[in-house]
């Protein structure tokens, strides 16, 4: 699901998205307070709607093997 949405993206945007998702994943696991602060900022900076970004992040977390 996630790959289909991102196919054809500019490689630098795709790299930025993966970097941001990785950072959020780390914060969610180890720094929950900062995750709460960074999640909306990251979503807005990348230009995704909240529903779309939630789906992308959920797919990323699932791919990483977390709950």
Explain how this protein is built.
This protein has helices spanning 2-6, 11-30, 32-46, 50-64. The model has no long low-confidence stretch (mean pLDDT 83). It is mainly α and 67 residues long. The longest helix has 20 residues, at 11-30. The protein has a domain at 32-67. It is built from 4 helices and no strands.
Compose a concise summary of this entry.
The chain has helices spanning 2-6, 11-30, 32-46, 50-64. The chain has 67 residues and is an all-alpha fold.
Based on helices, strands and strand pairing, what is the structural class?
mainly alpha
Note poorly predicted spans: none
The whole-angstrom Rg is 12 Å
* Global shape: globular
Please report the total strand number as a whole number: 0
Annotation field: number of helices: 4
Mean pLDDT: 83
* Beta-strand content estimate: under 5%
Helix content: over 70%
How far apart, in Å, are the first and last alpha carbons? 18 Å
Main sheet, how many strands, which sense, barrel? none
N-to-C series of helices and strands: HHHH
């Amino acid at each position: 699901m996630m790959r289909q949405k991102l196919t054809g993206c500019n490689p630098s945007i795709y790299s930025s998205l993966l970097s941001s998702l990785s950072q959020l994943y780390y914060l969610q696991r180890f720094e929950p307070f900062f995750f709460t602060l960074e999640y909306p900022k990251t979503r807005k900076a990348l230009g995704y709607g909240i529903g779309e970004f939630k789906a992308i992040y959920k797919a990323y977390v699932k791919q990483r093997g977390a709950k």
